[in-house]
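Rotation project, supervised by the postdoc (A.L.). Task for the rotation student: set up a whole-complex structure prediction and record inputs and outputs verbatim in this book. Inputs entered:
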Amino acid sequence: MSVDQKHFAILLDGALRVTERVMAQLRGRRVLAADGGIRHAAALGISPELWLGDFDSTDGLLAQKYPDAPRAPYPADKPRSDGEIAIRHALDQGATDLLLVGALGGDRSDHAFFNLSVAATIARNEAVRVVMTSGAEEAVPLLPGKKTSPDWQEGTIFSVLCFTQVGGLTIENAKWPLDRVDVPFGSTLTLSNIAGSDLEILLASGCGIAIAQVE
Amino acid sequence: MSVDQKHFAILLDGALRVTERVMAQLRGRRVLAADGGIRHAAALGISPELWLGDFDSTDGLLAQKYPDAPRAPYPADKPRSDGEIAIRHALDQGATDLLLVGALGGDRSDHAFFNLSVAATIARNEAVRVVMTSGAEEAVPLLPGKKTSPDWQEGTIFSVLCFTQVGGLTIENAKWPLDRVDVPFGSTLTLSNIAGSDLEILLASGCGIAIAQVE
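Outputs recorded:
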């Protein structure tokens, strides 16, 4: 299968269940690994074209397991996360489409939160398509004024996460549809909806991410 | 030990490791369980004074395990999360201090995110002290203009999660101190700092939460 030079997958250090859907999403992408995220490479049967990391002592076992992965080292005392560094590298290469694998869940709630906020920012500021996945869960940033139509199966539980007040939220083809509703920050109105067929989500303003239990 | 009638613990359905610190934090509190959160009660050796839930079919096994817990049912098709309903109940009882147990981590990233945003909103709008814990992790909302001094051990890894741009962030007594720095939304500048003794965090504006790997 040919590789689209501008479509990237980035392996991050969060949770991952290897599913057929993840394998299909990975096809035809260039793959980068962000530090400990390389631990997912073997299970996915892929070799990253680049492994970005600080390669401090904690990576010893992984380094033994992936001796052939070309490395791009950076200092451990860096002001950016591993994931952000890998995403920046992909953007420098002209990335237009990012699949963030291992971006959700895991033991570190702070990493999971930062991945969400970085993905939302990248999608908005860089006009890049972003999908985050753990195999079990999948998330897509919502851009104001741009309808999002995730291909989630009918019956899939999904939520809209709001970083701010969200204005004019419209959800069509779901168990609880919304029509241009303003959702205050901290409201749980948008928690645990159920997708119908051809789910569509649109917000007028604010910063939101749709997330689903895809498996 | 006497119970402070305005200090509550709320058991939520996220991850929980029962630690000495959690047990100490629980002492002297009234305890409510939010739906599936009651599963933590036995491990903690406590009996909630009230179990709020929709008590649909999925709670069958838990209902057998906790037959004596007084129940406050509500409809399954509700516009609020279980956790928010329990928090509202505590506030109606005059709560001034909330310990949210099982509020972080778990299998549902959307629940974890909503717990963070609800906690931030409650702390700000209701002037209530809020601490969230999973035993392994602990989080405290940051209020603009009000210094936060978490009692986290020297060497503890912590991050400041920013829902918005945060203005004038000051971090004292940490490996990477900050002095009135504006942090854009989506920046990873505030990820993985290390607490010194007497950590102090202050922000001038915006919405942030400090979270630590306490165990």
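Student's summary: The CA atoms of residues 149 and 200 of chain A lie 5 Å apart.
Supervisor addendum: Chain A has a mean pLDDT of 94.
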